[in-house]
């Protein structure tokens, strides 16, 4: 799912006639310079942040062939969802994963977090249609998932982390919301594999993911390599 974390104001502030400034903000670690045409010109720990896929791409999220291409049911098996689990789907989009997880966590809750009003409208409509009483729709922000401290057992991010405009701040809010024994399931298209038919800036390597999430206070527990195109990286708190 694609989470809108692109701020045109930010780009205009740092742009000039010769391109983006290459200076680094020592406090945040962000730099600004020209790069991939599919990137926003903002870099974090050596990785350019990608443009987001907006609400207009909702049909792609719900495409019939998605199960075959990504084996999303296998991803949910990897999560080992329990009936009492409290789960946050960050960048939930149209709710493709949300409404599959909700019956699995029937005694718990699934937080569907997004920032795009179009996606939030779609989520609320589907919640009403399916009478999914254990789904709560949350409007996040560019820098926070807007969930309470120690409120979730599992966090799911499917093809969204690489688009966060503020990955440092977002991960701080995720770590805060995750319980001590909680797990983050980071799903990203494999940056090491050129055969994966996704633009380079929309992929991530395990090495880069570990670098960034370790800086956020997490460590890689394991990477389950059973999905066709994506890494299924499981992170826990250090």
Can you tag this structure with a few keywords?
globular; Rossmann fold; eight-stranded mixed β-sheet; three-stranded antiparallel β-sheet; Class I SAM-dependent methyltransferase; disordered N terminus; alpha/beta; 238 residues; transferase
Spans of at least 5 consecutive residues whose pLDDT stays below 50 are 1-21
Question: What is the CATH superfamily classification?
Answer: Vaccinia Virus protein VP39
Counting structural domains, the number is 1
Query: What is the number of strand segments?
Result: 13
Shape: globular
CATH topology value = Rossmann fold
| H-E order | HEEEEEHHHEHEHEEHEEHEE
Could you say which structural class the secondary elements and strand pairing correspond to?
Answer: alpha/beta
Distance between the termini: 27 Å
The CATH architecture designation is 3-Layer(aba) Sandwich
Beta-strand percentage range: 25-35%
- Cα Rg: 17 Å
Largest sheet: 8 strands, mixed
- The CATH class label is Alpha Beta
Mean pLDDT: 90
Helix content: 25-40%
Total count of helical runs of at least 4 residues = 8
Write the layout of secondary structure elements.
Elements: H1 8-14, E1 15-16, E2 19-20, E3 30-32, E4 39-44, E5 47-50, H2 58-61, H3 66-70, H4 72-79, E6 86-90, H5 98-104, E7 109-114, H6 117-130, E8 135-139, E9 152-158, H7 167-177, E10 178-190, E11 203-204, H8 206-215, E12 218-224, E13 230-237
Parallel strand pairs: 6-7, 6-9, 7-8, 9-10, 10-11
Antiparallel strand pairs: 1-2, 3-4, 4-5, 10-13, 12-13
């Amino acid at each position: 799912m694609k989470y809108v974390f692109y701020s045109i104001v930010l780009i205009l502030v740092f742009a000039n006639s010769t391109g983006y400034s290459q200076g680094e903000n020592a406090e945040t670690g962000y730099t600004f310079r020209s790069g991939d045409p599919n990137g926003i010109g903002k870099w974090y720990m050596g990785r350019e942040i990608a443009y987001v896929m907006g609400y207009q791409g909702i049909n792609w999220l719900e495409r019939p062939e998605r199960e075959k291409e990504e084996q999303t049911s296998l991803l949910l098996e990897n999560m080992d969802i329990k009936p009492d689990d409290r789960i946050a789907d960050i960048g939930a989009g149209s709710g493709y994963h949300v409404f599959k997880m909700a019956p699995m966590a029937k005694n718990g809750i699934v937080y569907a977090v997004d920032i795009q009003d179009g996606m939030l409208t779609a989520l609320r409509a589907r919640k009403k249609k399916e009478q999914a009483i254990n789904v709560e729709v949350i409007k996040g922000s560019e820098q926070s998932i807007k969930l309470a401290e120690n409120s979730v057992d599992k966090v799911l991010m499917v093809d969204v982390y690489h688009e966060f405009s503020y990955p440092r701040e977002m991960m701080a809010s995720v770590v805060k919301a995750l319980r001590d024994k909680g797990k983050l399931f980071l799903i990203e298209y494999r940056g090491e594999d050129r055969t994966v038919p996704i633009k380079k800036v929309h992929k991530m390597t395990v090495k880069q993911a570990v670098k960034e999430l370790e800086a956020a206070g997490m460590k890689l527990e394991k990477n389950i390599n059973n999905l066709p195109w994506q890494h299924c990286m499981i992170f826990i708190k250090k």
